Each structure stands twice: as structure tokens, then as C-alpha cells.
Protein: Membrane insertase YidC/Oxa/ALB C-terminal domain-containing protein
Organism: Asparagus officinalis
Amino acid sequence: MTVPILLNQMRATVKLSAMRPEMEALKDQMQNSMDPQTMMENQKKMKALFKKHGVTPFTPLKGLVIQGPVFISFFLAISNMVEKVPSFKGGGAFWFTDLTTPDPMYALPILTGLSFLATVELNMQEGMEGNPMAGTMKKFSRGLAVVTIPFTASFPKAIFCYWITSNLFSLVYGFVLKHKPVRKFLNLPDINPPSDPAPAFSFGGLKNPNTSISAGESEPIKAERRISSSAVMSQRIRNLEKQVKGRNKSKKR
């Protein structure tokens, strides 16, 4: 059900990766320009660039946004079945024959957490290459996999049967999509992740992978920019003062 969403997410990431050079060029122009008119024009160019490729900075997150409501819907449906379907009382196997009660051995919650963690470690990068938020999302998902175990220990066993199966399915299609013939058939080109990922906040903060500036070198550059900006502002203020004085003199005459 979520495979088409994943494929769409991965194609969008390919487009965003192809847009990176143009996005960085426009971003640099907006940062270096003091003219509001020029900044507005560059913002329009940025919007036109996204429209041209048919994506937005948040398109790669579409899959995560959709998967959440889907999971909640399945969770509520199974919880309702636990209360109203009598066959759930003896429809399980091994130590979890009664699917309506929690697992006293905590084996199912642990298996759920481990399978989810395996999915995060092996498949989290699929569809997120080049996305500066991927690192933060992966760390958050790791923590979620650990926290899931104690917080879901009281859930009925039927929930875990669905959850573990879903995680295993995610692992399988993640492995399948790693094969080049499959990616070629689905028109999913390989993406080389950036060597220096940008901070995971916005796409505007992406750095050019072909240029690297050390922390020691960046400080003087920032200081020079602040000084040059201050000098420009001071010059503009002096020009305005001269214009005002000139107008006052002309009025007195």
C-alpha cells in the first residue's frame, strides 16, 4: 500500500538532488544581495525552479506524512477487532494463542522494536539521499524504536502481529529496491549522497560538496562580510544625509 508512496518519494529526491547547483547559486545571490528588489526576484526564481521540476522542499517527507495516518487507521481497526471478533481469542500460535491480551513474555514488543530498528538502519536512506533532514530523522527513528518497547508492552498481541509483519515487509522491499535491475525497471536512478551534508533544517542551507571551508577560515570570512555590510550601510546613511542637507539648502534659497 505504501510502496507507490515510497517510489514517488524517491523520484522527488532525485529531482531535488539535480536542482542543488541552481538552488545553491540562487541562495548565494540572496545572501550577498542587499537590494530588496533583487532578493524578491531571486525568490521568484527559486519558486519557478521548484515549479519547473514539480517538487517542493517537503516533497520527500510526503511518505512519512502519509504513512502515519495509515498506521493509525490499521491500529484502530485491529483494536476494534480485538474487542468484537471472538476468533481472536484462539487465533494465534505458539505462546500467543490469545491475540486479545498483552504478551506476558514481552517477546512481541521486543521483536517489534528490533524489526523497526533494522528497518531504520538498512532502509532509512532509501528515498532520502541528499535530504539534509535524513540524519536527524534517522536518529529520531532510532530513539523511537527503543522507546516503543516499554510503551507498547500493554498492547494486545494482535497489534504486534500486524506491526512485525509490516516491518518485515518494509525490510524486504527495501532490499529489493537496492538492486540495480529493479531500480532501472522502476526508473529510479542511483543517487550519490553528498560528502558534506548540510544542517538538517532547510534545503536552503545545503553546502556545495566541491568546496570546503575549515572552521578557522570561515570566521575571518564572516567578519569581513559583517564589516563590508556595515561599511555599505554607513555609506548609504551618509549619502542620505547629504541629500537631506542639499534639499534643506535649496528650500532656504
